[in-house]
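Now for a concrete sample entry.
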Amino acid sequence: IGHPEIFPLVFTTKTQEIFNCRVDEDVTEENCFKLIKKDEIIQDLKKRAAVSDFRPVKKVVLEYPGEELLVVFDAKLQYGQNFYLVASEEAKENLLKPPESAEEEEEEENTEGTLEFNPYKPLVHKPWVSLGSEKEVEEESVKDTVTKIKYIISRVRRKFGAPITFTDKNASQVKDSYIECLSYQDKKFSIKMLEKDVGIQMVPKVREASTQTKWTYPKNTATQYFPRQLSNEENEESLSSEKLKDFLTSVCLRMEIALQQNEIMNAFFDDWKALAEDEGSSGGKPDAYLKAYQSFTDLHYLKQRTISYVCWHPTIYGIIAVSARERLSYEERVNLSDKSLLQQSVILFWSLFDPIHPQLMLECPEDIYCFQFSPSDPNIIAGGCINGQVVLWDFSQHEEKLQNAKTDANGIKMTADEMVNSSILSILYITDPPLVKYCAVSSIHYSHKKPVTDIHWLQDYFEDNETGATLDNRAEICVQLVTCSPDCSILFWDIPASKLPEQPSSEKVKEENIFGMPPDDPDTFKHLDLCWKPLMKVLYTNIEQKDQMYPYCFPEKRQSLTTPEVPVKVSLLAEMSTPSSKNLKMLQNISTDFFVGTEVSENNRLPMKMLIQVIGKTEQLNNRKYTIHTETINTLQRSPFFKDIILSIGGQNFAIWKEGVTNGVILQSSCPAGRNTGGCWSLTRPGVFFIGRDDGNIEIWDLLKKTYEPSHFQNISKSITVISPSIASSKQHFLAVSDDIGVLHVLEICQKLSHPSTNE
C-alpha cells in the first residue's frame, strides 16, 4: 500500500540459481539489490512458462521501458515475500542512489575546493521562560489522594516461634462442593447514631356529622298454614296440562347431564388432598426410571442369537431362565420346518449372584420359542419348539443347586480373594453347568406345523376331556397345556397318568454326590416321548389362505370354584399318577373363553366351547374379531389387577380392551416411528405397563399421568425382544429385558413405578 511500483515475488532455489541471486551468497541483507536484464526474464517466461516465478508479473515485465529490472532481496519480509520487483525507472534510481547521499556528495565536492573557519563565540546564559509545560507534567503525574489503611497483625506471645501447619481441603469432600467463608462483624466499622430530640405537633381536622336510623321494636311472630289439597280432577288436569309437559321437556336434558356427572365424578372428592401425593415428583430429575442391576450373556450359546423368551423362577429368588433362537429373516422363517439345527440349543438358568456362569442348562431338540414353569411344580417346564413340537423337562434333581446359587457364588469369590492375598499363582477351574436332557417331546406328526408362539398351563381347578367338557380337578394339579402356532391351530395337551418312577435311594444319591457322578437322566415323562398327541385341536378357519395365524393366546379365569379338601400331596408326580378324568364332576358355571392375537393384526375372542375340533370331529366356528394393529400381535396379556382388562401390542401401537365391550377398544395409542416388539403389565401398579421397541427404547406408560404419550423413555440396547417383570421383595422389583444380540439386561424398577398411589 502506497508503493504501486513494487510487486512481491517468491523466488525458488531454481530461479535463484538461474539469475545468480542466491540468498546469503549473491544477495544479503546489506547488499540486497540485483539487476536482471529484461531479455533474460522474457526468455525464462518462454522456456519455463507457468513454472516461471515471473509469471504473476509477466505483463509488467513486457511493458517495462528499460533494459534492466531491479530485484530486491526482502530479508525482513517487509512486503510478505522473499523478493520484490521494482517496476519503474524512478523508483529504481531512488533505491540504488538515494537523494540524501547525492546531496552529501555535492557538499563534499564543494567543501573540497575551499576551507572556511567559523570564529568561536562564547555561550550566553538566557533566562528560562515558562511555556506551560510544568502544568502538563503536573496534570499527568500520579498523586495518592486516598487515605492509606493501616493493618495491625497481632499474635499471642506464647505462640511466637511455634510451628505452623497448613492443610489442604478438597472441595469435592464438602457437601454440594461449596466451601463458605463466613463473614464477621468488625467493631471498628460500627457507626453510632447521634441522638437528638425532635418534637412534632399534629392536630387532626375535626368534622361534625350525624345520621338517623330507623329502629323497630323486636317482637315474636308465628305463622299457621295448611297444605293445599287438590281433588282427583284437579290432579288429572294438572298432570295432563301442556305447561307441565313443556317444563319436563325443557329440563329433561339438563337433569340427564347432572345425573351422569354425579355418576362419573365424585362431587365430594378433595382435590387438594389428592394433589399432595404428587409432591415428590416435582423436581427436575425424572422420577420414573429403570436402574441397571445386572447383565448376562454367553459366548457359546447366546452369541449372535436372539433371545426368544425370558421367564423368572416362580419360587427361587434371583433365578431367571432364558431361551435363544437363530437370527432369521422373514423369508427364512417361512420355511422353518426345512431348516436344520446348526448349533445346539439350550435353556440357560442364570443367577443374579453369578453373572458369568450359568447355573443349569436344559437340552433342547430345536430352538425354543416359548416356555413356562408349571404352577404346581416349578421343577417341570413345558416349551414350544421352532418346528412345532412341545417339550417337557424335569430338573428336580438340580433344584438344590439353584437354591444354593448365592452360596456358590460367594464361595468362588472368597477363593479368589484368598489366592490374591497369599500371592500363589494358580488356575481356578470352574466346571460346566449340568446339562439336563428333555424328558419327552411330542409326536411331530400330531404337533404344530409351524413354530409354537405361545404356551400356557391351564388352571389347576379344572381340566378338559376329549369331548370338550370341563371337569372339576379335585387334585388341584396342573396337568394340561394349551399351545398356538401360525398354522391356524390351537392344541390342548394332556399329561396322562403313568406309573410313578422309582425314586433313587438316599444311599445311592449320597454315593453319587461323594464321587461326583452325574445323576441319571430323568425318566419322568418317558412314556410320552415321541408318541405324545394333543387332547383337542382348535382350527381357526375364518382366516383367508393367504394369511397366517401368529397367535398369543391365554384362557381366562372367570371365577374361582370351591373344591373339597384332598389329602396332603407327596409330590406332583404322585398326584399325576392318579387318573385325572374318572369320576370327576362336570362344571357348568365356568367360562372357558380365551383370546387370540393373529398375524393378520386381529384381536379375536374365541369361545372354546364353539371352537373345539376333536380328532375326527369338526364343529362350526363363531367368533368376534377386531382389526386395530398394523402388524403381527406379539403380546396379549390380561391385567393382574382387573381380569376383564386386556393389553395387546403389535406393530406400531398398542390397545387396551375390556371384556364385554363389543364396540372396540377403550384405549388405543398412536403410531410412533419405531415398532413395538413386546411388553408387559406392572405387577404392583394397575395403571403402569412397559413396552419394548425395535430401536432399543423402553416406553413407560403411566395412565394416571398421561394417556396420549409415554411418561418416560429409556434406551436399553440396540433392539428389544422380550420383557418380563418380577417381584423380589416389597422394596425390590426387577424388569428383565432381552435383545437380539444375546444379552439379557436385569433392571431395577424405581420406587415411583413400583409403589401404587392411594386408590390407584
